[in-house]
């Protein structure tokens, strides 16, 4: 685990312990804020841990928490955190993950019933003692029981590429119901996060009860958690194939995910979409802005604050804005942020936001495999797939010889493939530009899998790490810098080698990579496969700010892989990427000039 990941984990755990101990809310929020801030950084805090000014310059880190970061880096622990841990049973924090169990309930169960872990919780539900806690009762216990069952059966956080098709299927189903006027998904899925905890679906309908009934009766519903007039929650079996990536979900049980359906009034659609899209941090800042303007914001709309208690809509107050998200942001004098930007990373204070890259901006695929290595497509099929997407360029980048498990090509096979590409270019003519390339392994010491003469014969070189993915950060940094600095390299492919929910990958000093990539005009890849999304969003944001070139590639192995482009684009948008900085969006002549500049 990298220094930053260790720091973020320590502060997250400390915040959870404080909640269980009933500590001051301000202290809890301060530590949770540090965890969020550190998770977003691309600079290794180990390098500035002894510099209080540099630490406190990071938004979310104050003088006291900076001192704790320094202590953690220097000693490997924080004495205060150890003291907190000593006051809380080891199995207690895990109970905070159970839906229906909040910190206050967990604390009461611990203090009054001696419940210290999941096993004790189950026993207390079975013998009825949990229902005896004040303000709990049989219904609440049943809700907790279902929440625990959900947690044990759930696949955990779903990769974006599983969650999105599933949500789209649910929305399509609901849209076919009589009386449904609008349906859409919201939440972290709409923001394009790489993993999703649960699915949030919003609907406008004439007959809310009928929609809830049909939703709860859906053939993929494993169990109904709750059903009400405005909201229903179910545990739904995954309706998409996991294929070879299923192991990454980390559960032997039949995987399922919680889906929440809310039926909202038509006049509140915009407010509801804004509220349930989040993020929590973004919404908190937006509500603070509303309060400063004498307004109050909730899922029903933006209202003038009349000083009375209770929701304003219940008193018949007309909203200032509610029907569209744009109206709400305009009324609050905020530049409209696209959903992917709503993470409280400066979007609400920006006077101008970038025109984010869109799926239709992509005009080339620069990372594609054929049956010559581990792809499922012939050369012609790969080209035809690119033509069907409206691209002007496809790069054939089969694996190099060290990737023996992937059928990597040696120099002789690479030369033979080059002739095949020339012949294919004649067949396809000006319908598609076909580039000769290779996904060349970056070996553990940073050297490349082919010599310079071989690399010089290629139109495009994608240099990628595939082995030694648990290297120490310093070694990983040196290794990737050597590849970036190689004069024949165009693209650094999936730079960390991570697999979402399965493998952490390399943890290099990203700021050093960004500086080198800009200097050497090397594009950093956002590998669009939903199990990679590498670079990740926070890396993209830092790379964009550093002025780097980026590439969004599907790493095509089969025809359906072209469809993963949307996940790469979402990740790019979350990193504030524009089409101008993405080499896949450039016209053919400009892209060709860049490729030739490395020869």
The major β-sheet equals: 7 strands, parallel
Contiguous low-pLDDT stretches (5 residues minimum) are 241-253
* Mean pLDDT level: 91
Number of domains: 5
- Estimated radius of gyration: 26 Å
Q: Please work out how many helical segments DSSP would assign.
A: 22
CATH architecture descriptor of the largest domain:
Alpha-Beta Barrel
Task: Name the CATH superfamily assignment of the largest domain.
Answer: Metal-dependent hydrolases
Oligomer: single chain
Summed up, what is this model?
This protein is α/β, with parallel strands linked by helices. It is built from 22 helices and 16 strands. It folds into 5 domains: 3-86, DNA polymerase, domain 1, CATH 1.10.150.110; 93-153, 5' to 3' exonuclease, C-terminal subdomain (DNA polymerase, domain 1, Orthogonal Bundle), CATH 1.10.150.20; 158-263, Beta Polymerase, domain 2; 271-341, Beta Polymerase, domain 3; 359-596, TIM Barrel.
Description:
It is a single chain. Helices cover 40% and strands 14% of the residues. With 599 residues, it is an alpha/beta fold. It has five domains: 3-86, Orthogonal Bundle (DNA polymerase, domain 1), CATH 1.10.150.110; 93-153, Orthogonal Bundle (DNA polymerase, domain 1); 158-263, Beta Polymerase, domain 2 (2-Layer Sandwich), CATH 3.30.460; 271-341, Beta Polymerase, domain 3; 359-596, Metal-dependent hydrolases (TIM Barrel, Alpha-Beta Barrel). The strands form four sheets. The protein has a seven-stranded parallel beta sheet with strand order 10-11-12-13-14-15-16. A five-stranded mixed beta sheet has the order 2-4-7-6-5, with helices on both faces. A two-stranded antiparallel sheet has the order 1-3.
């Amino acid at each position: 685990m990298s220094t930053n990941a260790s720091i973020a984990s320590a502060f997250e755990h400390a915040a959870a312990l404080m909640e269980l101990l009933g500590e001051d809310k301000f202290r809890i929020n301060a530590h949770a804020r540090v965890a969020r801030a550190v998770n977003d950084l691309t600079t290794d805090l180990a390098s500035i841990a002894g510099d209080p000014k540099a630490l406190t310059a990071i938004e979310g880190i104050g003088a006291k928490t900076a001192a704790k970061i320094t202590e953690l880096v220097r000693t490997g622990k924080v004495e205060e955190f150890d003291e907190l841990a000593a006051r809380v049973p080891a199995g207690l924090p895990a109970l905070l993950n159970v839906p229906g169990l909040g910190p206050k309930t967990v604390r009461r169960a611990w203090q009054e019933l001696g419940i210290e872990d999941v096993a004790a919780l189950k026993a207390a539900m079975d013998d009825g003692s949990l229902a005896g806690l004040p303000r709990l009762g049989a219904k609440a216990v049943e809700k907790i029981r279902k929440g625990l069952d959900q947690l044990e059966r759930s696949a955990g956080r779903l990769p974006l590429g599983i969650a999105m098709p599933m949500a789209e299927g649910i929305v399509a189903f609901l849209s076919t119901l009589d009386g449904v006027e609008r349906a859409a998904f919201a939440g972290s899925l709409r923001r394009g996060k790489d993993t999703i905890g649960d699915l949030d679906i919003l609907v406008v309908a004439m007959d809310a009860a009928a929609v809830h009934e049909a939703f709860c009766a859906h053939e993929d519903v494993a169990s109904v958690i709750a059903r009400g007039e405005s909201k229903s929650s179910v545990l739904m079996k995954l309706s998409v194939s996991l294929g070879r990536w299923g192991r990454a979900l980390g559960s032997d049980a039949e995987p399922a995910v919680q889906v929440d359906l809310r039926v909202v009034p038509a006049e509140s659609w915009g407010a509801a979409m804004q509220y349930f899209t989040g993020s929590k941090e973004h919404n908190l800042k937006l509500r603070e802005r509303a309060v400063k303007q004498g307004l109050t914001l909730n899922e029903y709309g933006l209202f003038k604050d009349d000083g009375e208690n209770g929701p304003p809509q219940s008193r018949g107050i007309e909203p200032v804005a509610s029907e569209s998200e744009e109206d709400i942001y305009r009324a609050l004098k905020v530049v409209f942020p696209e959903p992917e930007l709503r993470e409280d990373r400066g979007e609400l204070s920006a006077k101008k936001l970038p025109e984010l890259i869109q799926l239709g901006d992509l005009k080339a695929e620069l990372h594609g495999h054929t049956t010559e290595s581990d792809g499922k497509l012939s050369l012609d099929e790969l080209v035809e797939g690119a033509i069907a997407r409206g691209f002007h360029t496809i790069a054939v980048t089969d694996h190099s010889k060290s990737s023996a498990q992937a059928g990597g090509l040696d120099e002789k096979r690479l030369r033979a493939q080059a002739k095949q590409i020339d012949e294919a270019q004649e067949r396809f003519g000006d319908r598609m530009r076909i580039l000769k390339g290779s996904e060349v392994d970056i070996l553990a010491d940073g050297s490349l899998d082919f010599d310079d003469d071989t690399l010089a014969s290629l139109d495009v070189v994608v240099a990628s790490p595939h082995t030694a993915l648990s290297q120490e950060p310093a070694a990983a940094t040196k290794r990737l810098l050597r590849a970036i600095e190689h004069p024949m390299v165009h693209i650094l492919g999936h730079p960390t080698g991570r697999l979402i929910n399965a493998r952490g990958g390399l943890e290099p000093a990203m700021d050093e990579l960004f500086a080198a990539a800009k200097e050497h005009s090397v594009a950093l890849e956002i590998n669009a496969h939903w199990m990679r999304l590498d670079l990740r969003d926070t890396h993209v944001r830092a790379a964009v700010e550093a002025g780097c070139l980026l590439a969004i590639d599907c790493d095509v192995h089969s025809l359906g892989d072209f469809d993963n482009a949307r996940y790469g684009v979402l990740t790019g948008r979350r990193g504030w990427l524009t089409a101008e900085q993405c080499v896949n969006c450039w016209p053919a002549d400009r892209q060709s000039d860049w490729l030739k500049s490395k020869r």
